[in-house]
Write a structure and sequence with these properties.
This protein is an alpha/beta fold. The chain has a single domain, classed as Vaccinia Virus protein VP39 (Rossmann fold, 3-Layer(aba) Sandwich), CATH 3.40.50.150. It is 27% helix and 30% strand. It has six helices and eleven strands. Strands 6-7-5-4-8-9-11-10 form an eight-stranded mixed beta sheet. Strands 1-2-3 form a three-stranded antiparallel beta sheet, with no helix packed on it. Helix 1 packs across helix 2 and helix 5 crosses helix 6. The longest helix is centred in the first third of the chain and has 13 residues. The radius of gyration is 16 Å and the shape is globular. The relative contact order is 0.16.
């Protein structure tokens, strides 16, 4: 049974007791997502229209922040995401968003039909796909930004491999970037083996470093 946990910045995450893993940092779920995926990812790539791929839709937090960012910046974001274990409505509704607009947006994201492009605003569209990234067909040289937000390498090692990163490299446009909260040496070497140029960046609160990789 997934458990809702309040994190240090007042936002909420889920805890999976079977994996002994949180969906987002207990040091601040929203702060971590902003630091890793918005600031180091979306804001690092220039363009009036960006195509984003997210590994791990999860609670919808990264998509939520990307949608709000798109509306603020007026950058058109086409957001594709894959999730092997979609959350039931009774679970995601427990994530507490104080403002009515925030609750409405997170509801739209979770209720959007799977396997089809859904336009949620003039600046943000969403396509959710259910399945395993390893067997999922991906387009060629399309994505400008990849949010790699799988459970940690010690919990889902099959997703943090050179083969997976090679698949993502092929799906990314040249000049595109992949960002992840992990800074483990094995992850860095797997990214480098897939021909990414990898840099370490300061991590969010509670983590010394994170990784950003460029094609």
């Amino acid at each position: 049974m997934l458990e809702v946990k309040k994190t240090d910045d007042g936002s909420y995450t889920l805890y999976n007791p079977e994996l002994d893993e949180h969906y987002h940092s207990v040091n601040g779920a929203k702060a971590e997502s902003k630091h890793v995926f918005l600031h180091a990812g979306l804001e690092a790539v220039k363009g009036k229209s960006l195509q984003v791929f997210e590994m791990g839709f999860g609670t919808g937090l990264n998509a939520f922040l990307a949608a709000r960012w798109a509306e603020t910046t007026k950058v058109k974001v086409m957001y594709h995401t894959v999730e092997r274990y979609p959350l039931e409505q009774e679970v995601w509704q427990k994530l507490q968003y104080e403002r009515e607009q925030e609750r409405e947006l997170i509801s739209q994201l979770h209720k959007a039909n799977w396997e089809q492009e859904v336009v949620l605003s003039p600046h943000f569209s969403l396509m959710k796909r259910a399945g395993d990234l390893r067997s999922l067909p991906l387009p060629f040289e399309r994505y400008h930004v990849v949010f790699f937000d799988a459970f940690g390498p010690d919990k889902q090692p099959e997703l943090w491999t050179q083969e997976v990163f090679e698949k993502l490299w092929m799906a990314m446009a040249f000049g595109g970037t992949l960002v992840t909260y992990s800074a483990k040496g094995d992850v860095r070497r797997a990214l480098q083996g897939a021909d990414f140029q990898v840099e370490r960046l300061p991590g969010p609160r509670g983590k010394r470093e994170m990784l950003r990789a460029w094609k």
